[in-house]
Amino acid sequence: MSVLQPMVYAYGIVRLGSTAGLPGGSIDLAGATFGRPRLLLSGSLAAIVSDLRLSKGVSLDALLRNSRHAEQLVLHHHRVLEELVETLSVLPFRFGVMFKDDQGVAVALEQNRKALLEAIGRIDGATEWGLKIYCAPDQLGRRLAGEIPAITELETDIASADEGKAFFLRKRLKSLTEKEIEQAITRCVNYTTGRLDTVVREFAPGKLQPAEMHGRGSEMVLNGACLVDRGLKEGFFQLLEDMFAAYAGFGFDYEITGPWPPYSFADCQLGGSGRAA
Amino acid sequence: MPLEVRERQELAISDLLDRALNKGVVIWGEATISLAGVDLIYVGLKVLVGSVDAVHQMRFALRDDASTDAEELM
Predict the structure, then answer these.
(1) Which residues of A touch B65 (CB under 8 A)?
(2) Which of A7, A12, A258 sits opposite B7 (nearest CB)?
(3) How close B7 gets to chain A, by Cα (Å)?
(4) Where are the domains of chain B?
(5) ipTM of the complex
(6) How would residue B29 be classed by pLDDT, with cut points 50, 70 and 90?
(7) Which CATH architecture has domain A127-263?
(8) Can you give the pLDDT at residue B10?
């Protein structure tokens, strides 16, 4: 795709009257130059935008097909938003929303004003925090072995059984242990997410990541996003400290990431007519 | 061992891609996608969007280029 004229790149939307300094300066990423972020007003809404210019010979398609360049562009999108998110309720655009000109932005905001205001209302005063729980099944299994009588009994039986019977008892022990591990993981996840209700406005479960992605030796058992009121951040952290303290001995580990722009709670696709697409 | 909190610069790229490419508001214009000259152009990062596989792929690409990325992003 060749784009000769500058486009208007959109990062997010705020209510008019929101006051916060926008990140300064322009940035060139592999021939794509994003101008200094600015506010573009449309009625009671304002879009955070910048002018995007492509250097001669640079095509957006080619940039996006190069994983390194694409990542730079995504990071830029995110960094503009993250500068604002701790103090301002920003409705984030998904990466890659661009308009031909300012008028295009204004029309899109005008046509979708009601839905956008509702979406801002959903995240107003809150930020997104990622919550992950990992489990080391071996550690959990060892802990359960000492606490579940059926497992202890099977281990005792195996120790005194002949080799043939011990073979089948070991299979039964393995099956029982796996079942107990699975149940313990479910209990931990359910208990944690249940307790979140007191400090979290909304919880959005996400896809679990494989070990090769998260890079840990343990298994991810929860990957969710929490929409937390700014005033409840400390309570949210304390709750998870308590959960971690309770479950760490069983091989569970908790990780919080953020604060994120509330991407996970701004998941709406709007049509040009103002209706959900 | 305290609760692990990863903020800002420590955020994992896989988490960012999952959010910024798959979530967030999208406004589709009357003529959404065209090569040029439309009111709204939406670029969906079609070769990268969406799947764990795609994010996984990027993760390894990034690991290979980590030092270069860090310099270019400053």
Answers:
(1) 68
(2) A258
(3) 5
(4) 12-73
(5) 0.84
(6) low
(7) 2-Layer Sandwich (3.30)
(8) 66
